[in-house]
Specification:
Elements lengths: L1 E2 L6 E2 L15 E2 L12 H4 L21 E3 L1 H7 L2 E6 L9 H14 L4 E5 L3 H12 L3 E7 L4 H9 L3 E5 L3 H10 L6 E2 L5 H17 L4 E5 L4 H15 L8 E7 L4 H7 L26 H10 L3 E5 L1 H12 L7 H15 L8 E6 L24 H6 L3
Parallel strand pairs: 5-13, 6-7, 6-9, 7-8, 10-11, 10-13, 11-12
Antiparallel strand pairs: 1-2, 1-3, 4-5
Bound molecules: pyridoxal-5'-phosphate and zinc ion.
Length: 385
């Protein structure tokens, strides 16, 4: 069954439907169960998943490292762990949701898949569809950088740059081709199911006090939260960790509504942030994120572009090169420590959602580079001893 957590309406699973008539994204009903023995995430967490993942669909997603941030933990007086999602097959957490949603399309008998994305999901859906010989339509904003277009196009999709409001494109796409194209968008119910596995993996390694989640359309937040709730409902954990949603100041419709105690988000006009991957001005899962934040006593934090870039460099010094959109988590943690909203000694997990190799903005690398002639190599190196 698919259900709407806003109005309670239920829909049969045989339909290709992702949005409730009331406009909210649908979710699969809750699963209960146990974590099984095994190596492969899709068999270990089988009790909690709506379908059995065909091994041929998988590119080896998940099982990502939870790394202790050594100097940052000392500096901020908390135990920070980075959930390194940059090592997924197409270098972002999206792969966990893509594999389930693409398989869902084939189970509905649909051979065309689409996605609306600013880059990470486009690359992910293209890779999985090409591998499984499904035609894939990728709709991206018209000003997407060439670097991102190159990676996506190499997987061989039909890539279409769309001029117009990116927020509206999500809703328009779900009306396009309906029974002939399955849109694997940010809040697709089966995609959300894949993101639950991040919560399961975190639970298995180190159960934290706080989990920090970069948020744009709301899918990742909704998936991770659902994962923890299902662990609780199954009696595996007593309480869920405190969940923190993070947005960039220049596009923060969810935090805006949260801070002013609104129940519904309002569309953000003219998003402006270097964290492009998290700049959806009208997040389809936004109202549900608000509901979950309220119900579970979560927090919503906004961070500036300058703090994001500093955090990106700090995370790189822990050995992980991430996107600005992933570095928002550390920027938020610094700010919450300063305001004492996270206590000294707390265990914190920050989800590092995607790799920096795809991002168009990084700090000034030329300024940090030295030059020397080959014959002066010895002297040159000794200058840094
Ligand atoms: C790198 C990165 N981090 C975080 C997010 C946020 O995920 P969601 O849109 O599901 O909230 C995205 C979404 O595109 C992303 O690409
Ligand atoms: Zn509804």
């Amino acid at each position: 069954m698919l259900e709407c957590e806003a109005c309670g309406k239920q829909y049969d699973l045989s339909e290709n439907i992702q949005l409730c008539r009331c406009g909210e994204p649908l979710v699969l009903e809750r699963h209960h169960g146990d974590i099984r023995e095994g190596k492969h995430i899709w068999s270990k967490y089988r009790d909690f998943l709506p379908l059995k993942v065909d091994e041929e669909f998988s590119l080896g997603e998940g099982n990502t490292p939870l790394l202790k941030a050594l100097s940052l933990s000392k500096k901020l007086d908390v135990n920070i762990h980075l959930k390194n999602e940059t090592v997924n097959p197409t270098w972002s957490f999206k792969d966990r949701g893509t594999v389930l949603s693409v398989q869902r399309a084939t189970e509905l008998g649909i051979e065309r898949v689409g996605t609306v994305s600013t880059g990470n999901m486009a690359a992910s859906v293209s890779a999985y569809c090409s591998r499984n010989e499904l035609k894939v339509f990728v709709l991206v904003p018209s000003d997407l950088s060439n670097k991102k277009v190159e990676q996506i196009n190499t997987y061989g999709p039909i890539l279409i740059k769309i001029s117009g409001d990116y927020g509206d494109l999500y809703y328009e796409s779900l009306e396009t081709g309906k029974s002939e194209i399955y849109f694997s968008n940010s809040n697709s119910p089966f995609r959300i199911e894949g993101y639950k596995t991040i919560a399961f993996e975190i639970y298995e390694e180190k159960f934290p006090d706080y989990v920090i989640i970069p948020t744009s359309s709301g899918g990742l937040f909704r998936g991770v939260t659902k994962g923890f709730i299902e662990l609780k409902r199954s009696g595996i954990i007593d309480e869920i960790p405190t969940l923190i949603s993070v947005q960039a100041e220049g596009c923060s419709p969810i935090c805006e509504a949260f801070d002013s105690d609104e129940k519904e988000i309002r569309r953000w006009f003219r998003p402006k942030t270097i964290a492009r991957a998290i700049s959806n001005p009208f997040p389809p899962g936004g109202d549900d994120v608000l509901r979950k934040l309220e119900k579970h006593d979560g927090m919503c934090e906004r961070v500036s572009d300058r703090d994001i870039l500093n955090a990106q460099a700090d995370i790189a010094r822990e050995g992980v090169f991430c996107q600005p959109s992933s570095a928002v988590g550390l920027a938020a943690l610094k700010s919450l420590r300063k305001k004492d909203k996270i206590e000294k000694g707390a265990d914190v997990v920050s989800i590092i959602t995607g790799s920096g190799l795809k991002s168009e903005v990084i700090f000034d690398t030329e300024q940090a580079t030295s030059h020397c002639d080959l014959e002066d190599l010895e002297t040159c190196i000794r200058r840094f001893f």
